[in-house]
Fold each of these.
Amino acid sequence: MRAFGDALKWLVTGSHWVGSEGIPVRTLQHAELSVVSIALAVVIAVPIGMYIGHTRRFQFLAVSTANLGRAVPSFGILVIAYVVVLKVASAFAFGFVPTVVALVLLAIPPILTNAYVGIQSVDPDMVEAARGMGMTEREVLTKLELPLAAPLIMAGVRTAAVTVVATATLAALIGGGGLGRFIIDGFSQGDTSMLVAGAILVAILAIITEVGFGFVERGVTPKTRSARREVSLLAPHPIVAS
């Protein structure tokens, strides 16, 4: 409890909120790492997941990728990314670039898995009804399957985002910024107050991320319900003999 109290005192000290190494700057660095990584992961994983779920091809690849992402430790991914970037472009080997590469690789599995499972789980009868009405495969995917799968896809993005925010602290190990700087510097300097304060800040940012994406996920859910009703109206109705 004493360490926690000292950390709170450290957090409310005015000198820790100013300068290039202050809490606001480190928080923005951490947020930048996280946002860029999640955005890149979404751009990569969602289209691939949509294709796999719609065509039912390469499902083994998606499952293997998800399992591999869970098996490899975050620190291991960071080290591999650091070594690769160091050999390919040594000028970018420290800080931002290798950390983003590692975080993208870490974020892809849950997003890819939820994207392809969400698309694949759409009622086949609804899909066939849409095709029977003359909708193209692109229209079936974008106007039917994607809206219905949106909540599950967002759940995958939310999981990836929270994981990325928590793991972005490792950037400090290779000379990067972010809130992990407080943890690493606090550990190396024997400053428990700074270390615990850094952990508290990361936890707060992760909670904010979880809650924020939770609201987004809820926001897309009513739209998917509306889409279900619209598709049911479009589906052919049985003919009742008079």
Amino acid sequence: MPKKRNSYPTFIILLIGCFITFLLWSAMRAADSGPEVTDADYYSKGLRYTSTLLEKKAAAVLGWKVETRLKNRTLTFRLKDKKEIPVLDAKGTLNFFLPSTSASISLPLQEIGQGIYFVPLTSDMTGEMNARLEFEREGARINRQLLLNL
């Protein structure tokens, strides 16, 4: 009767060879490609992540709601809490993301009445634009994404 061949040593040698090949491949990739960071400010954004979550939770507890209206190239926002009481003295900004570049425009909102904030739009702002609306007051913050067709 022929002896049964033991294939474990061959399997272990093949496994070690694959591991060494993968190790060499990953070392060459790490040495050649360099850092592939897409956001130069990633560290400070990461540090602000927890505080941003707390601000959003505070706004959610307060029940902030935003109504948006566009009339005659003027954007108007009405900010209310869960009891429908206007939110006064909030700091508001509207950030437009320009479609042709990676730049953005930040416009401050002006309060004109009881929880009513507005920003005039210039005549060169045309087409479909993405924007981010942000209100902040006393540690509470609310963000909304807008898609404007001007």
